[in-house]
Queue: 4 jobs
Job 1
Amino acid sequence: MDEWPSRIQLNVWGVNPDGKPDQTYILGDVDNDGIADRLAPTALTPNFFNITSPPPGSALSYKLRFNDNTLKFVMEPQGNWWLQIILFILLAVLPVLGGLFAIWTFMGSFYKVKVNKIGFKRRGRSPFGRAANRLSSLSFEDFRKPRDSNSMEMSDIGAGAVAIKRRTVLIATMEYNIDDWNIKIKIGGLGVMAQLMGKALEHQDLIWVVPCVSGIEYPIDQRAASFFPVIMGKEYEVEVQYHKVNNITYVLLDAPIFRKQSKADPYPPRMDDMESAIYYSAWNYCIAETMRRFPVDLYHINDYHGAAAPLYLLPERTIPCALSLHKSVPFFSLYASSPSFILWNVPERITSGSVSGD
């Protein structure tokens, strides 16, 4: 089959009522001289305009012109295949380059974590200004260097006496990376920040609570005692194992309620039904029990999913918390969308009067 019609006829009167061309006046070119010829309807000689030769040079097609006064039929070459190739390349490359440029711009503007390892520089004319400036200019490397107590100046006594202590920070996310197991669950901004926090917080000891999802094989590392949250009068078992990678100790939670989610959809689909309440109740309970097992200095709450966990520690214990929201949903929407969510997630001894859905 040709890419375009190679033989055509011109019909003056059009099509008959039966759907066939009117044979009384059909024009073609019998002798290939470019002048239209008319034959009788009963003639057996093929009467066509022949267009079997391709457009010359770099042309892409023909424009057909017919002069009804001179009966002359002309084929004019049209287009340029070089322009088509350039347009094809641009359409193939520009969207990709534009997308990469947008990603590069976004990463350069927002996609970063800055860690303050020096502190805030204090300026002033107080008698202790020199010591304060000296202390603010010290880095972690200065503390690691052995210092001679005999040569230490009086202004350096306060700075040299500071001891370096690695903090233990608890993080609980449903999107996470376990690089040595090649497990990556990332669907949004929290997944991006989880990956960045794992790399940027190497100077801290991280206790990272994560739920196991369906469709992923989790190797067995270090088994631990299970958690047994009691929700709405029913006890659930959550199996626990620990997996340590460098400064990160992963606490993997394995239970049917968590396995209902998948790598592509790690979050419950709703926030106002009973299944979501059980899910987040078990999630917050397990986070609180992890705080009891490890000497945690700070609980970094990522989104509001685990915000109720510190309530389980009351009144025996309180813990410093830092809240990071990774999307535009305000924290009070937790109450607005499901006021009963909080009541299902806190111990019974503090549900009366301490927490409300207002």
Note: The longest strand covers residues 238-245.
Job 2
Amino acid sequence: MFWHPFADMAAVGASGPLVLERGEGVRLWDEAGRRYLDATAGLWFANVGYGRREIADAVAAQMALLPAYSTFGDLSNRPAEELAERVSALAPIPGSKMFMTSGGSDSVDTAAKMVRRYWQLRGHPERTVLIKRDRAYHGMHTAGTSLAGIPANITGYGSLLGDIAQVPWDDSDALRQTIGLLGADHVAGFFCEPVMGAGGVFPPPEGYLREARQICRDAGVLFVADEVITGFGRCGDWFASSRFSLEPDLLTCAKGITSGYLPMGAVLVAPDVAETFWAKGVGMFRHGYTYSGHAAVAAAAMANLDIIEREDLCGRAAGLEAELAAALAPLAEHPMVQEIRAGTGVLAAVQLSVERILADPSLPAKAVSACRSQGILTRALASGGLQVSPALVIDADGLAELAAGLGLALDTLA
């Protein structure tokens, strides 16, 4: 029996799952043959859309040659080596080292360990505190759960990772003050999503990212950009960090690196930080995953990056930013809607009325169900908003279909 992630299994058991069978572009079909427009690109990941046979062909060819082998120690494979070179050249700081993982949660846990280990190696073992933000989502491993700024995602697990401090998601002065109160010589790193994702799709306030980055630089605190959602085109550039000139010390990524065709994540480590680990005499970094640098997955990533480059999907996403916001804008007048949050990449949220959610906490779930009835697949975010993050290949007709379906669903609720 399949235990679904982030699911009320009593409810799933009562109603049964929606079993999807195939996908093409931005659309999906279930086993009954019903078609849906995928408003979320799976779980923020299907940047190039579904049905890309060249990715499947690249994976099949690599599997026939060498599907996988451990990359521990000095072992490697050609696809992993080529992928590391390619992504390093695309990184916000060229020449960054690429530590490969199996997904976003792996990447966040890896980054947390790297940050603390960095200060150990630099002779400052007292620098252990990690700072997180309200509304933050950093995956569901132990470090990511500890770094959660969504209360429901951390409640019920007892004590996890220690030495964690929390600041408001949109207040750079609070970050500066918190570092001052803790003492910069005790703070190891600051974890920051350039655009808040699962917490509700909150674009950064004007100037916030620039100010937060400078505060960390001035205090010598490592700046970790969590780009698991925003990487590989979704914000109109290869990385949101490039768009906002963040120059992060570490950058976590996943999802769009393969467009979800196979699981992969990574941590990109700026050269000056990586040098501490790579220096002669430092020895082994005792961390890694069975599938780090998996050959067939790396082949999928390479084919996926080929598509993003060839079709200029980063440029397409930059244009979609305004198109998506314009398509959703009329919904802001709907009585069920509090606001539309959009305008930074192909990311948006249709925020349901807070007053109505307070009156009926099940409203977000009902809205998701109503959207499904209208042929739109979406999900409710922590804020009570509906996620809108379609594949970067969506066209004008798809945007119109998306907005119309959302509107009809909201009408049924009203």
Note: The chain has two domains: 9-51+312-413, 53-310.
Job 3
Amino acid sequence: MTKEAQLSSLIEGTQATIEEVYEVQAGQLQLDGMSPPQVRSEVREVLNYILALETALARVETLPLSLRLIRETHAVLLRGVRGQEQTPGESRTSQNFIGAPGSAILEATYVPPPANEVMGCLDILEKYIHATSDLRSLVRIALIHYQFEAIHPFRDGNGRLGRMLISLLLQEYGLLPHPLLYLSAYFESNRKAYYDLLLGVSQQGAWEAWVRFFLDGVALQAAAAVSIAQKLRDLRNEWRDQVSRARASANLLRVIDALFATPYVTVGDVQRLLEVTDAAARYSVDKLVKAGILEPVGSSNYRRRYRATAVIRILTEAP
């Protein structure tokens, strides 16, 4: 989820690394009240993406995938970051367009429907999401993603929300029990084709080319997800065997397992995880540092973070 958030935001020009995001998350830092030098605005955008997706996944447990849920998710996505002045959670009331920075609407690459047609378009899209169809679900998701991007219903955040919609639909249609497949890595590495093929549907009705591109991406990212999962599993088993041979306590095994959810930790994180004293948590961290599993980050001892570098390396390698 973190990698998807980082890459989907990168497509929109947000420059934040996955390591920066994990480092901010370490220690369960609260974003509210933190000054910009502590958390860069670009990192906040990625963190908002994660929070928005988590919020949406929780909401679909009790609320159908609907326009209401999409608006709520959009409000979380833009809360307190770039675009927050663009009426988060509300459909646009003015004309927008896609074009080069600083260009006029007459120079636009694509002009979405006028504002007074947005709600009607979204209503039709919502009905299609829940309608029965002879098309395979993955094909329908490709069509829905295009249509959402073509409507461009918000003043900002449409690209990220449209890609987030793919993750939600994979669960909505029962293709995955959890959001395990993310396409932003594929879209980012094929960014020009991604935009050109979406535009090709609008200008030429080139649906088949877009759907084939989308399905190729699903196949590629599915294989990449399996490969990454296998590497992480093998690394986890290697580390567990390493500390077991050293007859270390079961607490170290629990910390190791936690590193595969959050590869940056603080002593405070370990203390909360194990429900032990600060000294005991520090002892566990020191043990993992000596084992080469964790390494300290930065020179300051205050709220020092520790990184599971091998996990980060697997997560950031090219698919």
Note: The first helix runs from residue 2 to 11.
Job 4
Amino acid sequence: MTVTDPATSVTPELDEEVLGAFAERLFGAALGTLELTTSYLGRRLGLFEALRGQPATSVDLAATAGVDERYAREWLEQQAVAGVVAVDGAAAPSEERRYSLPEEHAVVLLDEEHPAYSGALADVLGPITLSLELVVDAFRTGRGVPYAAYGLHDMQAGFTRPMFANSLVAEWLPALPELHARLEAGEPVRVADFGCGEGWAAIYLAEAYPRAVVHGYDLDDTSIVAARKHASARGLTDRVQFEVQDVTDPSFGTGGYDLVLATEVIHDLADPVDALAGMRRLTHGGGTVLVIDENAAEAFEAPGDEVQRLLYSFSVLHCLPAGRTHEHSAATGTVMRPAVFEQYATAAGFASVEILPVEHPFFRFYRLTG
């Protein structure tokens, strides 16, 4: 260990502008974290829903949402100061102020199928906080943190659902012309969804194409329970089925699927090569393999843009620990660059990897052949 002698050490000269800017940045991050957490309370307790289209005082909101009035009042004032809700009569006594939720804000917070929906992001802090000490231990031991320990399945499903609802059929599948033509012609098509989560991709695909049969596979039993519930609620259990299944198991599956899809899953797996090999087996005979994964930069750059910052943050806190729960792990993390993915695909037996011309801020689209 190196010991510094205080008598000989030199204090570095500080750039006050850089110092102040970074301190300001941390303050902004803390403020954003706190305000995101209060948005979680608004979603969790039904406060935003109660305010939508119905301006209310704190007494009104407490009665409608079934919460304590003093807590409702503090939350409303905080949301108004943050600019999330509007207030009429700010100078009036607190019990007379009326608060309203702008419809544009309501759409972003509550409408789960709208392209602008981002409310699920408010749900990330609770699970991440609860699992944080497990991540601390993982850093020290080199072990992983099981996916189930995070309890992130609802948040993850909520984040991707509007993309599936608005883009899967309208933009993503048309990038596979032969398959898309068959779907549009009403031909019977079999689809497998690897790492299906709560099943929204499978559900929207089946709703768009009445002759499509979709099988969703995921190792997380909680997600599969939710997926089955969603499929049942939408009357699709005759064509959409979900099973708990380790898609990396070499004995799993044979050919016969026209499309095998994996969205935001390959980078999370301890053994991505075996999962991709399974996708290849299931499409034996001419099926299509589509992998949708993170839009990681092709090479490391620092500082990075907001998307790369988001990916790395999720990687440190979730994806890398979740992928290291097996003794032998590829330890990919969220930032799976195209060259790394191509190595995995080649090792799984694919002859070529094509990046499809689909523009998306968060995802990159790979078609695998051979």
Note: The chain has two domains: 16-110, 125-369.
